From TrEMBL:
Gene3D superfamilies: 6.10.140.1340. This is DUF2892 domain-containing protein. The keyword Transmembrane applies. Keywords: Membrane, Transmembrane, Transmembrane helix. Residues 2-56 form the Inner membrane protein YgaP-like transmembrane domain.
Length: 67
């Protein structure tokens, strides 16, 4: 799995987790989904993605978007 796919999969998982927790536990869990969305926007503008750094250190192969 490439670094790009790992980051996108993780972001999707966080969004879905936030939605599920907001339905099952408390509506404030939507803040988790909002944080993931904000992080996706800022990483597209700045090129800095903390998740990409973590996945790179875990050994994910480089992709096209995050170098």
């Amino acid at each position: 799995m490439t670094l790009d796919r790992a980051v996108l999969m993780f972001a999707g998982f966080v969004v879905l987790l936030g939605i599920a927790l907001s339905l099952l536990v408390h509506p404030w869990w939507l803040a988790l989904s909002a944080f993931a969305g904000f992080n996706l926007i800022q990483s597209s503008v700045t090129g800095f993605c903390p998740a990409a750094i973590v996945f790179r250190k875990l050994g994910a192969k480089p992709g096209v978007a995050f170098k």
